[in-house]
Every structure is written in C-alpha cells, then in structure tokens.
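Write out this protein's structure.
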Amino acid sequence: MLSLSSVSGQEISAELIEVSKGVAVLKTSSGAIKKIPIKKFSPESIALLKAEYEKLKNAPAAEEAADDAEHGEGNKKAAPAGKTKVDGLLAEPFKLTHTEVVPKGANFAAASFVLYSDIELEKVRSIFVICPALNGSAENLLADKKWREAAKKLNAAIFIPVYINQDLENMYTNMKKQSGEAFDKALKQVAIKSKFSALNQLPFIVWGGKAGGELAHGILSLYPEKILALAAFFESKPRLETTSKKTKDIPTVPCLFITDNTAASYPEVLLDYYKKYKGKKAPWALAKTYTSHSMPTAAENLALQYFEAIAPLRRPKMGTKLNNVTMLKDTWSGDNESFEIQQRPADKGVSWLPSEAFANAWKATNIKAAAAAH
C-alpha cells in the first residue's frame, strides 16, 4: 500500500494497479478502484507513483525468469485455481469492482458510481443501491462488512452513487435534474465496461440515510417500475421530490420511511406524501428509531431486516416482472401510534409489514424509540 496525498492535502492509502494516459488506477484497502489524474498528487506522491510504476513494469519479466528457473521452460505454473480475472485484477473466489466517473452537472460538482460484487454474477438477482450521506464515500460503505454481507444474503451486487455538492439549495437528490441523467448513463456504462450485461435488467433494492435517504427517494421517482423495495432514513426537514412522470407505478413499490425520535411527529412533507399514496393502497410503512451518534445504525438494521423479508415476496418465480404485494393476505400491519401489530392487510391508516418477524422488529424498534424520547 502506498500512502499518497493530493496537492490540496487529502490523503489516500492504496495499491497502484496501472498508469494510463496520465491517470493512476488505484485499489484501496476496501477493494474500491479509483482513477485519479497524476497531476493532482503532491510532488512527493508523484515520485512514489513513478517508482511503483517502474516496479510494475519490471515485475512480469522478473516473475517469468524466476518461474523458468524453478520449473524450466514449458513447465510454468498455472494461474491460481479458483481465481477470475476481472478488470485486470485477480479476485478470489470472485470480486468485481468497477468505478465510473462522470463530469460535473448542473446540480452536483462531481460524481462517481461504484459497482461491487463478491458473488458470481450469474447468481446476482438484484442490485443493492446504497446511497451515501451528504458528500459521502463508497470506500467507507464497502469497508463496512454489514453491507457486503447483506448483499450476499440478498443475492445482490452493490451499486453506490456518490455525488459531491456544496450547494444545498441545488441538491443532487433532485433526480429530475442532471444527477438523474448521470445515474442513468453511469448505470449503462458500468454494465458495458464491467461486462455485466444483466445489470440493466435487474431490480433495485434501495437504501439511503439522511441526504442518502433523499437520494434514494429521488431514485424512486425515477425508476419505480424497477425497484423491488426501498427503505430510507430522513432527518427533520427532508427535501423530497414528490412529483414523478411514473406516478402509477409508485404505489406498487414497498417502502419503509424512517425518522428518528427527536421530533414528536413525522415531518409534514413526509406525512403528506405517505398519506397520498396510502390512499392508493401503497404497501408502505413508517417507523421511528432512536438516534445513534452521527449515523442511524438502528435505522440501517431495521432496513436490512425489511429487505430480507420483502425480497422473496417480490421476486417472480418466472420472468422479470416484480410481484405485486398489495393484495397478499398473509402480510401484517402495524398501528403507527400504538405500535400494535396484527396479521391482516394494512388499511390507509396503518403501516404495511411484510412478515410476522419483521412486524415484531418494527414494533420493538418503535417502542424503544418512543421510550428513549421521554
């Protein structure tokens, strides 16, 4: 690993993979691939990169000579068993990481999109879209094994849209603007460049917290027909895009909207949006969690339980069209004030819950949040 720094003083620890057209391709400790122009590094880091690049150039010849000496010409060692070559990397047993960087747009200063999978691509049945918090990082998310393990349980590859923006009045969470166009184009480019052609046909499981929750909701307005399930954590005054060209599809998407226990009631914009689509029999739920430092850990855990419960209900046995769960009779419902649960389809005023196990988790989380608020 090289310890590198940019001209502006930002630091990164990574392994040099290759240098192409003045761009250093780096692999971080989490496995994420970053492509950074060499001119952006400090003079000391550029010297390190040059020295490492020389080692990379000379390594194949040195390895071949050593192999010849040990085994003789014509008896060279085979590539390690069980490894697959992807994007120039050897992964064991399988790991794909691809990053697509796009130019800035009208409502974001920079953006990159990371596809990650450590399960065989033919076993992938959905795309787990994880939206970082404001100006967040894909590297930090992938370093947390909770998300990687959840993706395995869901038979999903991970896709992380990372937007950077300092203008809070013109946020990337509004996917009707260029951030939505960038997401769509990046998804197609990643599918081509990673040779994962099925990427564009697979349904999304979407999670986001704080600004990531607003971004997740923006993805709902853009792709409701592709979303298997969505869970989002919102702060007290979320910026929600409440209009969509696909309003008829939105009520079919199971959604879990979570806030913390610092306010007496749910944010007005969220509550109005929730009531609007509950009137159309949307399988939606509200929940409150207790606050946990700077990140809503309780909300993340509840969301992962929700996804595990809903995925089998939504996935079709044949074809690609997602199952409509609104008419299922063996689902559960929860009262948003008393937190009482029962096995029956949810009406307009209560939360729709996909299973008994999740209903109990939902109840326990709400009760704990209510107790912590007093």
